[in-house]
Structure to design on (290 residues):
């Protein structure tokens, strides 16, 4: 006979369904002392400025593999000036290539996410973005603005932009407004006084800029004679709806191939006590045995 539990408070359920499968975070206990120190320093910069540039995480061979895997998948340019009329974007990246798996779960990234968000935070979206020559600057925005909670507030999301080419002042490097994560409800336009502090995130290929979802930023204008290739991954708290619907995008074949940590990020996890359940059970129960 099944033993029936008596629940006095919903807080007693916090570790029930969620703990049927181990919570997946970056394995911080396995990080070296040096890596812990680097992440701690990155986090202090992130809190102060709203963004941090982490240089030279990928070597030349890794960059070549990423370019070879992603450039052939790119097609037509964007549909509006926000996507970029001279910018190529690849959506549903995880179904089309495994090239971004290691970027989405890179320890220098997840180490920051572990400090920002609750366990089992989610991947909100992933894209490849190629800004072609002649592209105008993207309208400034902050990435978690579609969560209609008044500012100033803590970030509900965060994003990475990985430089697969060098990011320069004239080829479309992401433009950021330092400390704008602390701004209130004011709308930032090209005429705003805050624009005087905007700077391009100049960095060599193989680097990444990590910024809070509350930071004002945008793709820069490309006045150079070459394109600028990047990969971006965005993340959010585990109790929020992501931008991409990975449940409809990702096939069982893909779900069998992606790393365990990424599987949790695309929604095969539970935010306690039972947010994300399927038929009263952990969502991983819906998958073939891994």
């Amino acid at each position: 006979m099944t033993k029936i539990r008596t629940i006095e408070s919903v807080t007693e359920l916090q570790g029930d369904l969620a703990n049927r499968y181990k919570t997946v975070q970056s394995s911080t206990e396995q990080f070296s002392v040096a890596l812990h120190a680097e992440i701690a320093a990155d986090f202090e910069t992130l809190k102060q400025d709203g963004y941090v540039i982490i240089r030279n995480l990928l070597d030349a061979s890794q960059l070549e593999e990423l370019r070879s895997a992603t450039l052939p998948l790119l097609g037509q340019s964007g549909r509006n000036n926000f996507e970029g009329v001279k910018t190529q974007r690849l959506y549903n990246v995880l179904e089309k290539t495994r090239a971004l798996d290691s970027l989405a779960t890179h320890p220098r990234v997840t180490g920051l996410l572990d400090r920002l968000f609750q366990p089992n935070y989610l991947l909100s979206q992933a894209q490849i973005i190629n800004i072609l020559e002649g592209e105008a600057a993207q309208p400034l925005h902050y990435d978690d603005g579609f969560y209609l909670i008044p500012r100033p507030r803590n970030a509900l999301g965060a994003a990475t932009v990985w430089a697969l080419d060098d990011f320069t002042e004239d080829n479309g490097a992401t433009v950021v407004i330092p400390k704008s994560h602390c701004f209130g409800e004011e709308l930032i336009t090209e005429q705003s006084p805050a624009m005087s502090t905007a700077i391009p995130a100049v960095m060599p290929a193989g680097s990444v800029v990590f910024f809070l979802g509350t930071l004002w930023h945008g793709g820069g204008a490309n006045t150079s004679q070459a394109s600028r290739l990047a990969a971006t991954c965005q993340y959010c708290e585990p109790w929020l709806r992501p931008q991409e619907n990975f449940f409809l995008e990702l096939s069982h074949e893909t779900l069998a191939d992606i790393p365990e940590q990424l599987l949790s990020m695309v929604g095969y996890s539970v935010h306690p006590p039972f947010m994300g359940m399927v038929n009263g059970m952990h969502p991983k129960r819906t998958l073939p045995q891994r």
